[in-house]
Specification:
alpha/beta; 13% strand; 169 residues
Amino acid sequence: MSRLHIADTGLFVAMGQPLNSQYQAVRRFARRNDVAFVLPERVYAELTIDDPDVEEVPIDTAIDEGWATVASPLEFSEPVVSRVMDGVQRFIANADDRPADEVERADAALAALAAQHLSVGTATEVYIYTTDVAAGEGAETVLASEGYGDSVTFVNGFRFIEDLVDGDS
């Protein structure tokens, strides 16, 4: 059984800098459990900045240490990837009462990445770590409609970090 752990921007923002207890708790979790968090390209782009005053970006530290990685580009030519991306955008738009074209595509990319891996069998279980409840619930709902309901788990990023920090204290 292959597991895929997909992380969103909010998880890394909530962790903060490498010296923070939250960041260190997630790092320990990843190392203890041999987990590498996979980020869609859109999420990585949100987490990186081109600023000469910033010496080290926390996500790059995680990548350098081997417990985070950036996914290959999404295969929009695969119908399930496009359907899931669109479906999650509509779900979030309905949940937040806003037009679908205003929904951040990085949120929908979490579920699209899961669909891509589930559909070709490179993952049989997917955990989506996000601080955006609508994105997490949308991913579970839309992926269930594609037949992957038993294979996908939304992990609330804030609660995940809080539980790790509380468990370490």
